[in-house]
């Protein structure tokens, strides 16, 4: 790598071609990396001069320290998401194209530097023309480059070109931000996506060719025949299918069975079935902690034969469900009967689970397994939902209840903050216990999102002078028992896209990319030299993309969810004040103007109005506190209107 000295500013605010380096080398083409790099420099100078007049334009050009292939062609941009002094960050590499080191000296020209460059960083406007200020900023940038890029992101072998069948292409990007991360990762890795979805899906349109290689229509009705329909649809593909995956909960078992029918790598469909059904999950992990009923009549019959009375509070939920839909906490038999009847009516034919409510901090745990090895894990704090602190329970003090304005009986998420404040020994306990469960189920490859509680934790949620936070448990609570893990559910896929984005901002790890790469794992592959090389390349790239940002570059994140709290017609939402919006890196309002919304209290379902990913400006404990505080300010400032 080398530092390009600050470019001289224009003499006035008017930019002319004579102030901008011109591409005169006859070997440069409009589409070459050199041409792209040159345009980056030209645009930076022009923007600086037009917006700021006499000023210095500071650009750092990045040169490769070794020859090889980049693990993904946007790796520099992704690693510098949280660098606050950057005006713009660019990559100049092409998927599968080898890059080479080159000798350079003080005599090296700008065009020669750009010809070898793999990327560049344009610093934000620095006031005045004080060169010492620029040199200080460039020195700081050099430290950031060393910290963020000191890992093996240039490898000996490229990822082999593969065609991946994506079952369920997700909603149109304007409707949901999730597809942006999925398709961006595929394109950066050079993976050709074959989208399998219903006729008329947005990726079927020819204008969506930039997002996928091929679209194949398929009846996506979730039934016993879906795996066969997926296989039949893929048999019509214009090229080979090397792997199949999905990001959809409902489609995980069917997708795994389709992959097995085609002889492709997949996690065990039987394990998918267990994760898909909460009753089966509970029976696999702790069969003596729950009761399953088919409905209210069945429950009343079972209660008459219990050897010991039920101990409240209890959790009641459909055995198959998503996004906490239908989950309720009850503290009396009357509430229990009402909850079971409501679930029976809303989820006909679905079994109903009744289990103890476990007191303790809840966490989201995200693990990445590759060839049976845990390559990456992170655990974040899932703050109490309003259902946790509802008036029917006594496990949280009144201060916490009053501090979180939300529907009284909802288990919709409110806040997820990373990293967790749990003690290291409890983090280690969660990691070892949950990994053991995944391996016991037969999982070896994939990204897994688990939800759990730490029973008898040394920490509890309480109101501090800075708001709700995890603190050491009060002395009047019984914390003499050793902490233990209570598994809530296993999702053999990435977490919600809001959390995926937050993880990448905080740790530099892209779950969308890892999920796809895990699907490429070899399965019953013949032992040939070329396939051996492909496997080596895959393993190398996977390990590289599991390398987190160093601690000094890890900025804590706070995912703020706004669940609906009343029924009516959605009118709209007001934008956040700029002083808060600057901390928000991703956000979306899910509702459309004129949309009619049912009363969530009556329906027992609390859809999200919006979400915000808030990222701190400081690392470490100070950043964690800042992320929590700024997130709550965003929650308080966000206003929407429902008539």
What features would you describe in this structure?
Strand 14 (about 360-370) and strand 15 form a beta hairpin. The longest helix has 20 residues, at about 35-50. It is built from 19 helices and 26 strands. It folds into four domains: about 15-155, no CATH class; about 275-355, Dna Ligase, domain 1; about 360-550, ATP-grasp fold, B domain (D-amino Acid Aminotransferase, Chain A, domain 1), CATH 3.30.470.20; about 555-640, Alpha-Beta Complex (Aldehyde Oxidoreductase, domain 3). It has an eight-stranded antiparallel sheet with strand order 20-17-14-15-16-21-25-23, with helices on both faces. It has a four-stranded parallel sheet with strand order 8-7-6-9, with helices on both faces. It has a four-stranded antiparallel sheet with strand order 10-13-11-12, with helices on one face. It is globular and about 90 Å long. It is of the alpha+beta class and about 650 residues long. Keywords: ATP-binding, Ligase, Nucleotide-binding. One of its GO terms (molecular function) is ATP binding. It comes from Daldinia eschscholtzii. This is ATP-grasp domain-containing protein.
């Amino acid at each position: 790598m080398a530092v390009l000295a600050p470019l001289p500013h224009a003499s006035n605010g008017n930019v002319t071609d004579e102030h901008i380096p011109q591409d005169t080398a006859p070997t440069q083409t409009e589409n070459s990396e050199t041409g792209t790099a040159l345009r980056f420099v030209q645009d930076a100078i022009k923007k600086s001069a037009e917006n700021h007049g006499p000023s210095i334009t500071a650009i750092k050009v990045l040169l490769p320290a070794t020859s090889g292939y980049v693990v993904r062609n946007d790796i520099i941009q992704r690693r510098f998401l949280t660098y606050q002094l950057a005006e713009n960050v660019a990559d100049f590499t092409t998927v599968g194209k080898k890059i080479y080191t080159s000798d350079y000296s003080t005599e090296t020209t700008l065009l020669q530097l750009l010809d070898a460059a793999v990327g560049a960083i344009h610093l934000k406007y620095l006031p005045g023309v004080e060169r010492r200020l620029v040199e200080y900023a460039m020195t700081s940038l050099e430290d950031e480059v060393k910290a963020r890029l000191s890992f093996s992101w240039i490898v000996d072998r490229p990822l082999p070109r593969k065609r991946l069948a994506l079952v369920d292409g997700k909603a149109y990007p304007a409707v949901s931000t999730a597809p942006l991360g999925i398709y961006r990762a595929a394109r950066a890795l050079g993976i050709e996506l074959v989208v399998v979805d219903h006729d008329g899906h947005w990726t079927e349109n020819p204008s969506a060719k930039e997002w996928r290689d091929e679209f194949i229509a398929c009846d996506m009705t979730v039934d016993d025949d879906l795996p066969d329909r997926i296989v039949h649809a893929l048999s019509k593909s214009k090229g080979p299918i090397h792997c199949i995956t999905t990001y959809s909960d409902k489609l995980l078992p069917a997708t795994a069975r389709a992959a097995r029918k085609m002889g492709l790598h997949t996690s065990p469909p039987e394990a998918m079935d267990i994760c898909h059904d909460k009753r089966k999950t509970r029976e696999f992990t702790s069969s003596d902690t729950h009761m399953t009923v088919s409905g209210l009549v069945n429950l009343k019959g079972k209660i008459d034969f219990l050897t010991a009375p039920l101990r409240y509070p209890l959790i009641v939920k459909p055995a198959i469900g998503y996004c906490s839909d239908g989950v309720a906490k009850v503290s009396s038999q009357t509430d229990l009967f009402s909850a079971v009847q409501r679930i029976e009516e809303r989820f006909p034919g679905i079994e109903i689970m009744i289990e103890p409510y476990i007191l303790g901090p809840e966490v989201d745990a995200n693990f990445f397994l590759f060839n049976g090895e845990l390559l990456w894990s992170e655990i974040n704090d899932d703050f109490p939902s309003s259902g946790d602190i509802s008036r029917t329970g006594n496990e949280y003090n009144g201060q916490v209840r009053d501090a979180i304005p939300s529907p009284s009986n909802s288990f919709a998420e409110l806040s997820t903050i990373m990293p967790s404040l749990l003690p290291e020994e409890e983090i280690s306990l969660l990691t070892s216990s949950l990994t053991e469960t995944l391996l016991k189920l037969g999982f070896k490859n994939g990204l897994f999102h688990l939800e759990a509680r730490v029973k008898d934790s040394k920490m509890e949620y309480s109101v501090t002078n800075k708001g709700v936070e995890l603190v050491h448990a009060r002395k009047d609570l019984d914390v003499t028992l050793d902490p233990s893990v209570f598994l809530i559910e296993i999702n053999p896929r990435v977490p919600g896209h809001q959390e995926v984005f937050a993880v990448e901002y905080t740790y530099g790890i892209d779950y969308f990319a890892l999920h796809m790469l895990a699907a490429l794992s070899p399965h019953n592959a013949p032992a040939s030299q070329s396939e051996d090389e492909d496997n080596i390349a895959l393993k190398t790239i996977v390990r590289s993309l599991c390398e987190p940002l160093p601690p000094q570059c890890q900025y804590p994140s706070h995912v703020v969810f706004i669940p609906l709290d009343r029924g009516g017609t959605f009118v709209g939402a007001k934008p956040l004040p700029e002083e808060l919006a600057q901390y928000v890196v991703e956000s979306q309002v899910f509702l459309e103007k004129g949309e009619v919304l049912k009363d969530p209290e009556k329906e027992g379902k609390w859809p999200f109005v919006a979400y915000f990913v808030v990222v701190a400006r400081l690392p470490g404990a100070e950043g964690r506190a800042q992320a929590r505080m700024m997130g709550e300010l965003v929650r308080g400032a966000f206003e929407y209107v429902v008539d």
